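wait is this the right file?? whatever heres the structure
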């Protein structure tokens, strides 16, 4: 095994130059991991919100596309009955 030994002064200079960059890189990495963790913990819409959205859409389409509106109402009732969740 070959090893290269830096003279004491050069090793200290190298460490002084690299330490701030390494610390900055580690800090950025930790912030990135925290942001991913926060995004993963955010709750997705639950059944009542999804059902309410489907019913609002059904109301808005009732005048122009009644069959689509009835499909939306059926989906809302199935989601409510089955306890469907987007999680």
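ok assuming it is, sequence goes like this
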């Amino acid at each position: 095994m070959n090893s290269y030994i830096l003279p004491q002064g050069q090793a200290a200079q190298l460490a002084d130059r690299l330490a701030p960059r390494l610390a900055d890189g580690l800090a950025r990495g930790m912030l990135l991991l925290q942001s991913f963790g926060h995004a993963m913990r955010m709750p997705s819409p639950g059944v009542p919100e999804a059902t309410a959205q489907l019913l609002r859409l059904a109301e808005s389409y009732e005048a122009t596309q009644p069959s689509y509106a009835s499909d939306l109402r059926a989906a809302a009732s199935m989601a409510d009955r089955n306890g469907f969740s987007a999680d």
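The mean pLDDT is 81. so i think its the right one actually
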